[in-house]
Amino acid sequence: MMCPGIYEHPFKPGKELLGPYFYTDGKYFWDRDMWKYVVKYHVTLPEDFIDYIMSGAGDDFLESFYSHPDSWSGTIKKWKNEERGLCLLPDDTGNIDLSDF
Questions:
Q1: In this structure, is residue 78 part of a structural domain?
Q2: pTM of the model
Q3: What are the angstrom distances between the C-alpha of 60 and each of 35, 56, 64, 90?
Q4: C-beta neighbour count of 95 within 10 angstroms
Q5: 54 in a structural domain
Q6: Residue 24 domain-assigned (yes or no)
Q7: Would you place residue 93 in the very low, low, confident or very high pLDDT band (cuts 50, 70, 90)?
Q8: Is 1 among the domain residues?
Q9: Contact 36, 57 (CB under 8 A)
Q10: Residues 85, 79: Cα–Cα separation, whole Å
């Protein structure tokens, strides 16, 4: 799911981020940048979420989408190629490298 817009970085006041983008495995949902908050800002995730992910319980659900043609980057490229379309989203979907995050 994508919520088009701009929101403020929760750890860098004044820095704006594109999105937010949310993902799910059918049980939980998380932000595209969640791993960056964990790695760079030492955010702690709930233990039940970690146990669930480490168990592989959501793997079948996620694998069903690996080759799905409607990824965000694929959809953005498709929108940009439409003859009368106007898509102002960046090709990289607003993703920021960890060093700049």
A1: yes
A2: 0.65
A3: 21, 8, 6, 31
A4: 17
A5: yes
A6: yes
A7: low
A8: no
A9: no
A10: 6
Dig out the tokens for 96 from the structure. 């920021």
Question: What pLDDT band is residue 14 in, cutting at 50, 70 and 90?
Answer: very high
User: What tokens appear for 57 in the block?
Assistant: 């319980």
Identity at 52, one-letter amino acid code:
Y
Burial label, 33 (beta-carbon count in 10 A; 0-12, 13-18, 19+): buried
Strand partners, 16: 8
Q: Looking at the 3D structure of the chain, how many domains does it have?
A: 1
Give the integer Cα–Cα distance in Å for 31 and 22. Answer: 4
Domain of 67? Answer: 6-91
For residue range 33-89, what is the model confidence (pLDDT) as tens digits? 888 999 999 999 999 988 988 888 877 776 766 666 666 667 777 877 888 877 776
Beta strands in 1-101 (DSSP E): 6-8, 16-18, 22-24, 29-31
